[in-house]
Every structure is written in C-alpha cells, then in structure tokens.
Design brief:
The structure holds 2 protein chains of 2 kinds. Chain A is mainly alpha-helical. In chain A, about 45% of the residues lie in helices and about 10% in strands. Chain A has a two-stranded antiparallel sheet with strand order 1-2. In chain A, strand 1 and strand 2 (about 10-15) form a beta hairpin. A 5-stranded parallel beta sheet of chain B has the order 5-2-1-9-21, covered by helices on one side. Chain B has a 5-stranded parallel beta sheet with strand order 11-18-12-13-14. A 3-stranded antiparallel beta sheet of chain B has the order 6-7-8. Chain B is globular, with a radius of gyration of 22 Å. Classes of the chains: A mainly alpha, B alpha/beta.
C-alpha cells in the first residue's frame, strides 16, 4: 500500500494502483488517474462508463464485468475497449476509484 | 397434524434440481411437502462425459438418461418450458399456460450457451470449422471433424468467463495432445489454448501447474485474449480480439459465453443482467425473496460452475429449505468447496480441491490416505471414471458419498505459501 498525492489530496493506493478507500474519490482524481493510464482527456463517453461503474459499485458492492457493462451501461463492448484499452472493466474501475472487479472463477 | 402441506417447486431437472429434490423428498414426508420438478425436456446429460465424446472415449447413449427416471416416485415431474416466475405472488408460469404456486422455489436451471453473442461465431463455419463440445450435438459433430483432421492449427478458445467446468477446456487440450499422438499426426498439429484469463487457470498455484503442463505438451498458451469476433472468410478462420489481436485456425474448439436461463431475465427481480440468480454465498438464499433459493450453475456465486460445487451446495440448500419451512435461522455453512478431476491424457488424471478461501493445494483427498492431489496419476483417472457410476447411483439419488462432504477437508493437504496474485477480470 502506498500514499500518493493525487489532485492535491493524500490518497491511499493498493499495490495495483486501485484506491483503498472508494469514498476518497472525486472527479479531479479520476482525471488524474486516467492521465496516468494514458487516457487524456476523459470524454463524455468515458464519464458515462465511470459514473455507471460508481453507481453499480454503490448498489452491489462490486464493479461489473465487461459483458455486464456491454449489456447495461449503454456503451458497446467494442467501444469499451476503445475507451479503456486492454481491460475495460479493470481500467474503468481503477479510474472510477472502486476495487478491481472480482475475477470470475 | 393440521399443518398445511408446503409446496416446493424446483426449476430444472439437472444435477442440482434432481439431487435437491431427492434429498428433500427423503427428509420431508409427502404430507409435509409436495415436490414438483419442472424442466423443458426429458434429457438428463451427464455433462462431465461431454469432454470424452469427441475422442470416442464415451458415447451419447451412455451419458444421457431420462430426467423423470432420476427422481424419487413421490416427486412430480412436469415437462414444460418456463415462461417466467412472479416472485411477488409466488407463482411459476409455464409455457403451456399451467401455473404452479409455491411456498419455496429452488432455481436450478443451470447455464445456457450463447454462441450468437460473439460476432460471426455462428456464421458459415459454425459446426464445420468451429465447434463446441459443451453440448451433446456439438461434441458429436466435433468428434467427426477430429477423425478427419490430419494436421493444421487447432485452437481451443474460452470466449469469456464464467463458463461451466473451467478446467474442461484444458482437459480438452491434454486429450487432444494424446489423441493426435495416437493418430500418429501430433507433429502435424499446432495446438493453441486461447484464454481471456492472465494464466492457464483462475487460481494461482493451479494456474502455474496447469500452465506448465501445457508447455510440457508443446501447447501454446495465449492469455488475456478477449474474443470479439470469429471470421470464417479464409479457408479456416481467425479469432479477433477486442483489442485487434488475431489467432488463425484450421479447426476451432470454442467455449461460447454462458448466460443463465432466459426465463430468469423475464422474471422481475429474480436474476442479474446475465440471468444468474444472486444468492447469499453461504446460505444460498436468494437476494430476491426469502423463500427463493438457487444452486449450481444458475446461482451467481464466486465459485466454479461445476457438478461438485452443485453437489456440495445441495447439502446446505436442503438443510436451509427445511429450516426456512420451520421458521428457524438458516445454516450459513457453504464454504465454496469445489473438487475437480482433471483428465490429462494417457489414462491419467489430476485432482484439485478448493473453496472460497483456500486455493488448490497438493496432498491427499479427502484425508492423509486418499487420492493424490495436484498430481497426474492413473488412480485419479480411475476415480474420474468411477465417478460416473457414483453420479447416477449415489449423487443424484441424494445419498452421501463416504468421506466426501460439503465442507472442504484440510487434513491431507500441504500448506504452501500462496503467491500474492489475484485473478483479474478483464
């Protein structure tokens, strides 16, 4: 675990760079975390996914997987990969300040 | 006396529904409860047998039996597709128009394959150049294709998790290696395993072991590949990932994405976006209503979708249905126990045993004297073969298998330092 200054706030991150405390998150932190991942700027489509991730996490305690995102977020899986390359669910969760989605087993 | 007879309705006559029905029938008299099992067809498939069909190591008629015949005679079997469930009124609406009222509902309708959700997969090459062995018809068709396959690129692809029996695609690779050696064409076949995971399997220690077993057999491993499209435009075809990587094939064995049964999505509040039923992971009581339970592949629990899981869940579920009917607190004892025989070719198999918290470890199962864990042995292969008999004669009728219980055993296991690594969801 490390503490880092992000958008002017002291934020605790785990080994993989996910926020330890999702309640510390705000829009400015999202912008900075996205920049670190090479996503700059965050477009309206990015925000749609980020906000959806936040509300799913608040309702269910875990972030959705890519396929659930594709079915329910209003953004297709193809576009999700364009917005958040490599692993959309993981990367969007990181930027949204929520824990890494639990792997399916 | 004087108590009303409870009505228990079980949706699905597969592994979970059948063993739950038979166990409930044994523990409740017909005057205490009526038990009705609903399924859309009368074909109970011993699903672990599907792996062996393409290699001629099993035959369809051995692994399919009538569903109704696996049920105790005091259980009603209704063959009718399910239209939807109304949780509010406690009623199941069937396609024929029949309506079943329930006091307790058990959802055990498993998972369904959705190859049509992957762009192009069910196009012109489907069941000609790309097959799945996850249903009986696909497994038989694949068997015919393998018989004629004299060389080229054979690709085994898991499109997305979760899938039923996550070790089966690996077992298919091991058996394919054995099969092509028997056919004398192994040197003409390139075998590749393409997975969305970041390793061969989900659990770190087993993932490393299984990854090593692929390597020993000269099977290439492609990880973090999220198949977005299957294209049959050239002579064979190619898998294209969402991030534009490609794997070409002459013959593809594809494990399509899985959903819960379609009626779950049509039943307000019952399931999640994919049609699986969220439940308490220890009691198996649904989040939707206290009188609804789910087990097996149909349940959204963070554990493998596998027969052993369903078997171990069944014991807890039956206890909890009883407790619910008696108005007693539920038993939160399901620990995520799973147990898989992994067929590795050349009449050997490996056994793994794990739960929510403890990943597969070496040692012996179920105690210090028992089957070797995480080792390829002939004994484990015999165990896997014997299991089919136990399935029909012991597991489905709801009899206990000596030494094998719901709670994961630890007595015969070695403690290993666990590598700090989580499974990532893409």
């Amino acid at each position: 675990m490390t503490t880092d200054t992000i958008a002017g706030a002291e934020i605790e991150l785990n080994e993989e760079g996910f926020l330890v405390d999702p309640s510390q998150w705000n829009d400015d932190i999202a912008v900075e975390l996205a920049r670190r991942e090479g996503i700059d700027p965050l477009t309206e489509r990015h925000w749609q996914v980020i906000r959806f991730m936040r509300s799913e996490f608040e309702a269910k305690g875990t972030g959705p997987t890519v396929r659930v995102l594709g079915k329910t977020s209003g953004v297709s899986i193809k576009e999700l990969y364009q917005l958040f390359p490599k692993g959309p669910a993981k990367l969007a969760a990181k930027i949204a300040g929520i824990p890494k989605p639990r792997g399916c087993i | 006396m004087g108590n009303p007879t409870h009505r228990i309705v079980i949706l699905g006559g597969g592994t979970g529904g059948t063993l739950a029905a038979n166990r409930l029938r044994r523990s409740l008299t017909p005057s205490e409860a009526t038990i009705t099992v609903v399924d859309q067809d009368d074909r109970h498939v011993y699903q672990p047998g599907l792996l062996f069909l393409p290699f001629g190591l099993a035959h369809l008629d051995e692994i399919v039996r009538p569903r109704g015949r696996q049920l105790h005679r005091d259980i009603a079997f209704v063959q009718d597709p399910i239209d939807h469930v109304d949780i509010e009124s406690g009623r199941v609406f069937l396609a024929s128009g029949q309506v079943l009222d329930y006091d307790v509902l058990v959802v055990a309708t498993g998972a369904v394959l959705a190859p049509e959700e992957t762009e192009g997969l069910t196009g012109p090459g489907w069941n000609e150049r790309a097959f799945t062995f996850y249903d009986p018809e696909g497994a038989v068709a694949l068997g015919e294709a393998l018989e004629w396959f004299a060389g080229g690129r054979l690709v085994v692809n898991v499109v997305e998790m979760p899938i039923k029996c996550p070790v089966a695609p690996l077992e298919f690779c091991f058996l394919a290696d054995w099969f092509f050696q028997q056919q004398g064409v192994r040197d003409k076949v390139d075998l590749t395993y393409v997975t969305p995971l970041d390793g061969a399997f989900t659990k770190p220690v087993a993932s490393e072991r299984l990854g090593g077993m692929l390597e020993e057999r000269g099977i290439e491993l492609v990880t973090e590949f999220n198949t977005g499209e299957v294209d049959y435009s050239d002579a064979g075809g190619r898998l294209v990932s969402y991030d534009d990587r490609e794997v070409a094939f002459d013959l593809a064995v594809v494990i399509p994405v899985h959903n819960g049964a379609a009626y779950v999505v049509r039943s307000p509040g019952l399931g999640d976006a994919l049609g699986f039923v969220p439940v308490d992971v220890h009691t198996l009581q649904s989040d939707a209503a206290p009188n609804v339970f789910a087990l097996g592949d149909a349940a959204a629990v963070p554990v493998s979708k596998a027969g052993s899981v369903t078997h171990f869940e069944g014991e807890v579920l039956v206890e909890n249905v009883r407790r619910f009917l008696d108005g007693r607190p539920l038993d939160a004892s399901y620990d995520g126990h799973a147990n898989c025989f992994i067929e590795t070719g050349f009449s050997k198999a490996m056994l793994i045993d794990f739960n929510y918290d403890v990943e597969p470890l070496p040692g012996h199962f179920p105690g210090a004297v028992g089957l070797p864990l995480m080792k390829e042995t002939h004994l484990n292969h015999l165990g896997k073969l014997l299991f089919q008999w136990l399935y029909w004669h012991s597991l489905l009728p709801g009899r206990d298998i000596p030494g094998v219980h719901s709670a994961m055993p630890t007595a015969g296991k070695e403690r290993l330092p666990i590598p700090e690594r989580e499974v990532s969801a893409s």
